[in-house]
Amino acid sequence: MPEPEKLTVPPEELRLEHDPATFHFECTDELTPLSEFVGQDRAVRSLQFGLGLGKPGYNIFVTGLTGTGKATAILEYIQRTVEQRRQTGEMALPFDWCYVYNFDDPDQPNALRLAPGVGKRLRDQLEELLGAVRSSVSRAFASEDYEHRRRDILEAGQQEAQRVMEQAQKEAEKAGFLLRFSPVGVAVLPLVDGKPITAEQFAALKPAERAEIEGRQARIMEAVAEAGESLRAIEKDVSQQLRQLDRQVGETAVTGLFDSVIAQNEGHEEVGEFLAHLREFTLGNIEMFRERNGAPSAALALAAAAQPDPFLAFRCNVLVDNSQAAGPPIVVEPNPTWTNLFGRIERRAYLGTYVSDHTMLKAGAVQRANGGYIILNLIDVLTKPGAWDGLKRLIRTKEVRLEDPMEQYGMLTPQALRPEAIAVDLKLVVTGEPLAYFMLSTYDEEFWEMFKVKADFDVQIPRTLENAVAYAGFICAACEREGLRHFDRTAVAKVVEHSSRMVGDQEKLSARFGQMRDLIVEADYWAAQAGSKLVRALDVERAIGEKVYRLNLVEERIRELITRGVIMVDVAGAVVGQMNGLAVLDFGEFSFGRPSRITARTFLGQKGVTSIDRESQLTGRIHDKGVLILSGYLGWRYAQDKPLSLSASISFEQAYEPTEGDSASLAELCAILSSLAEAPIRQDLAMTGSVNQKGEVQPIGGVNQKIEGFHDVCRAIGFGGQQGVVIPSRNRKNLMLRDDVIESVRAGRFRIYSVDSVDEAMEMLTGLPAGVRRPDGTYPDGTINAKVDARLREMGEAMRHFGRPPKAEGEGEKENEKPA
Asked: Most CB within 10 Å of its CB: which of 381, 447, 673, 787?
């Protein structure tokens, strides 16, 4: 006969409580806030390796489920690492990056890499230089000396032109013509009797006289042409002398100014080259910088009509300013779109179109993180068009280009700039799920070359006193950071216990510190409502209970339907082929256990075990595997000396939602065995556990929610004194039950049994011995296995009888006749 006492789990094993006396503190304000990872040695060593190795491709991919607080923890860890290296002098400061005007091709601005703070200084110097150049040039060109030298050049040119015109006039008069010079050309008028004649008068002359005048005019036109050439040469020479004068005056006005700025930037070769080009640009366009009577010059007005800023060459765009940097930058980009990552080219509307220049280039996270670290979330990157490909190209080429994202898709953009690429040297840290890491490493050929370091964060850590104290340090840090009340040691003990409950393991603690932070904040709220200066164990318990109450509406509705009999679940009596199975319904942040009636019916046939839910396509592949294992067990146990002639149907009654998992396979097998043996099963017990083909009971998940779900149903219907749950023995270390369930067990209203085999489960459910197979293959009379074996033998004989072909009339008499 079975002995339930041996299978009973005692109350002290139902929850591993933490004794507050093991803590050496009374309150968390006595502790130092935790600044390290808790129980993540493997991940920490990977981070140390990845951050310390500066070779190409050794970027870090951080895996671990969400809620572990890894993103915040990684940021803080990198900050501490950078600070330590900065203090030891191992870290170099990041560079400034600037874009300046390209005098050869304005559509391709030049990038300058400068020491920290030099970029902002250069920008201010250029602004001051522009003002000084305009002021100095205006003064120089307004001076009397410049006006006198300009008049001298113009007068000398006028005198030379006058001499040429007078010489041409004399030659024309000798030939009988008069020359009239005007801005549109030279007019040659014939003289008759010493007076010029008009065209009408010339036409009225005799043909011979006209021919004679035209002959002389042809000769004089050559002299006139020579005079015109001389006048144009004189004009060109005067213009050249004026330009040389303007350049000389401009050089005198601006050379000292430029030399001063160049001297201030000695040691920055690129800046010196740019300033030299800028000086040539200034001298070549000196007219733009002149002002006459306080009004801009015509050259400046013309330049302003072509572009919004005529002094664009003097503008320095400080793309990345590290003047205040104390160490390498650490950038976290929560929205890694193309422009947020790699920068953008802005545009402004001007004269009916959109224009852009180097001053409208804006940095992205990559440029800001250059020389340091950038932290990204993989899902965020993969969901942003072009971002992942851009990152791979960045790592491969070690440079970043400012490009319009529309050009990536072949779309035309107005006035597309082509800024010079910026060299990039940074460490990329990407956080993602383990499955994503596996998929990318399998299907992306470049992934291995990009992320050679994997830092794997675990979702649970060992439950040791050291880690419990570290938990207290984490609570202290959260209280300091959030401005919360500190926790006394009883509250810390409750947090530790709840952490074990979250992972469903007495020997583990949850590493989902994001969720633990929420509990800390909520417990502080209830402590405030109670008027307590410290957070106590009572406040933590209330925070847990209130959160459950906010989320368990569906659970209450299902329990109400069971209580009213709408969902049929028996918690008393005994029924053949009927079992209370347990399932977990998961609603994301909240999950709970729900009992379900499982029924089994056996009959003649050879179809084996059929799951009605599977045939209805309401089950997943893991559940289907569990059903197939049942046939394997039945064949191994009972079909060694006879064929297995059996048809059995099993079903989750009143279950209309998809079912997955094999945690009900033990209950399904027990229901089948009960139907075969015609042995009633106790309905005051519910069961969970999977089974293998050898009849061994295997552990399952969600054991705490399943036990509590059946306990709450029994309490709602009414305790009978014998109700309980049968679980796998291998799940005993997973028990972290609620206090009310443990109290019911202590009071004898509820029981929890653990089993290792199908035989133990059947003994508990039926009250009959299972029976051990004898050497001859039989089982002791009156045992479950004997009844099942006998029933299967009967079914086999019946199948053989019904499978014989019908005998013909008179065939029996012939068989009985004896030969003579």
From this structure: 673
Q: Please give the helix or strand (H or E) that residue 667 lies within, else none.
A: helix 665-677
Question: Nearest 5°: CA angle at 134, between 128 and 140?
Answer: 130
Rounded Cα distance between 234 and 244, Å, is 15
pLDDT digits (tens, 9 = 90+) for 248-268: 877 888 888 888 999 998 888
Query: Of 355, 254, 263, 367, whose CA–CA distance to 314 is shortest?
Result: 254
Distance CA 510, CA 499 (A): 5
Residue 679, classed as helix, strand or coil, is: coil
The pTM of the full predicted model, rounded to 2 decimals, is 0.76
Residues 6+ apart with CB under 8 A from 168: 179, 223, 224, 226, 227
**Which run of H or E residues covers position 461?**
strand 460-462
Domain ranges of the chain: 4-68+459-551, 118-306, 556-606+638-649+662-801
| Cα dihedral across residues 143, 145, 149, 154: positive or negative | positive
Contact between 400 and 344 under an 8 Å Cβ cutoff? The reply is no
Nearest to 290, CA basis, from 153, 143, 152? 143
CATH 3.30.1120.10 fits 4-68+459-551, yes or no: no
Angle at 622 between CA 621 and CA 624, to 5 degrees: 60
Alpha carbon distance 696, 689 (integer Å): 10
CA distance 746 to 731: 20
What is the full DSSP assignment across 470-482?
HHHHHHHHHHHHH
DSSP 660: -
Statement: residue 719 has pLDDT above 50:
yes
Per CATH, which fold does 556-606+638-649+662-801 belong to? Ribosomal Protein S5; domain 2 (3.30.230)
CB of 648 closer than 8 Å to CB of 602: yes
User: What is the distance in angstroms between the CA of the first residue and the CA of the last residue of the chain?
Assistant: 61
Give the angle 103-105-106 at the CA atoms, nearest 5°: 75
Q: What is the pLDDT of residues 128-179, one digit of tens each?
A: 998 888 888 888 877 788 778 878 888 888 888 788 777 777 777 776 777 6
Phi-psi region of 343 (alpha: psi -120 to 50; beta: other; left: phi over 0): left
Residue 319 sits at φ, ψ, to 5 deg, of: -65, -45
